[in-house]
Design brief:
7-stranded mixed sheet; Aminopeptidase; 7 strands
């Protein structure tokens, strides 16, 4: 399995994975996906096997109250490639991109009924921070998870973790 950053020619395959993973109305629009991927404050990682996209993941970051905070917009693995470690490796790469951008924390929403995804995040050190009712369409709740990161300064050395408790703000 090859893991690499997104390239503009990847969009058709990326969106095909989105269509396999989510049905309307839960699916992101093409426009939203393009805007998110093209943001200078994001990184999109691709997992591919012999030019076939097996999955992808997107992280964005922004400055909030003086600190850089990263948000996992999505992490998707094609149904034919699940349970093979792809999601774990994509997650690791999202975290590395967020750390390189100087993020102190990384957080996400996950469907409260998606036990496999919740297990992935908990296993990889994410801590439950709360629940947001009616987050997804059809009145589905989301659980919120966060993980402290060790951001890197411009010299490339770890800059230490924030001692402040992370507080989730609404996107």
């Amino acid at each position: 399995m090859l893991f690499r950053l997104y390239q503009p020619g990847d969009f058709a395959q990326l969106y095909a994975v989105e269509e396999q993973c989510f049905l309307p109305p839960l699916r992101f629009s093409r426009q939203f996906m393009r805007q998110t991927i093209q943001s200078s404050a994001s990184a999109t990682w691709i997992a591919e096997e012999q030019t076939e996209m097996a999955g992808f993941a997107i992280v964005e970051w922004s400055r909030q109250r003086g600190a850089i905070i990263a948000y996992i917009q999505t992490l998707e693995v094609h149904p034919n490639h699940r349970r093979s470690g792809i999601a774990t490796e994509l997650l690791r790469r999202l975290e590395a991109s967020a750390e390189a951008a100087g993020a102190e924390h990384i957080w996400l929403h996950v469907d409260a009924e998606n036990a496999a995804a919740i297990h992935l995040y908990r296993t990889n050190g994410y801590q439950f921070q709360g629940r947001q009712e009616h987050y997804y369409l059809r009145n589905r709740a989301a659980e919120i998870y966060v993980k402290a990161l060790t951001p890197h300064s411009s010299s490339g050395t770890p800059s230490g973790e924030s001692s402040a408790k992370f507080r989730v703000s609404e996107p």
